[in-house]
Amino acid sequence: MKTPNVITIAEFCTYHKIPESFILDLEAQELVTVRRDFEQPCIPITDIQTVEKLIRFHFEMDINIEGIHAISNLLDKMERLQSEVQSLQNKLAFYENK
């Protein structure tokens, strides 16, 4: 039985032609969230895009799990900093137009 907001790891890995152990390694590094719905490990649909990006890092760019972890942390930090810069620019524009 499936729930509409998750996909089983087995289905996902079959589709992408990757070993299930790769997803479990990503989970061990806390790079993805794996849920246990109906006794089967599943990936939330909202995380699919992230997992596919990590698959490309590993299988297309030959980056190991530790490297993927470092890259993910740097990308997350960069996104936070970009958001902070945007917020500060908005505040500056508000005060300049007063």
Briefly characterize the structure.
Keywords: Coiled coil. Residues 71-98 form a coiled coil. With 98 residues, this protein is mainly alpha-helical.
Annotation field: number of helices: 4
CATH architecture: Orthogonal Bundle
Strand order within the widest beta sheet:
1-3-2
What percentage of amino acids are in beta strands? 5-15%
Kindly report how far apart the N and C termini lie: 59 Å
The number of domains is 1
Number of DSSP strands? 3
Gyration radius, in Å:
18 Å
**CATH class categorisation:** Mainly Alpha
SS-derived structural category:
mainly alpha
pLDDT < 50 runs, ≥5 residues:
none
Helix content: 55-70%
- Estimate the global geometry from the Cα principal axes: elongated
Largest sheet descriptor: 3 strands, antiparallel
CATH topology: Multidrug-efflux Transporter Regulator, Chain: A, Domain 2
What is the residue-averaged pLDDT?
A: 92
What is the succession of H and E elements?
Answer: EHHEEHH
Protein name: Chaperone modulator CbpM
Pfam family, one: MerR_2
Organism: Bizionia sediminis
Keywords: Coiled coil
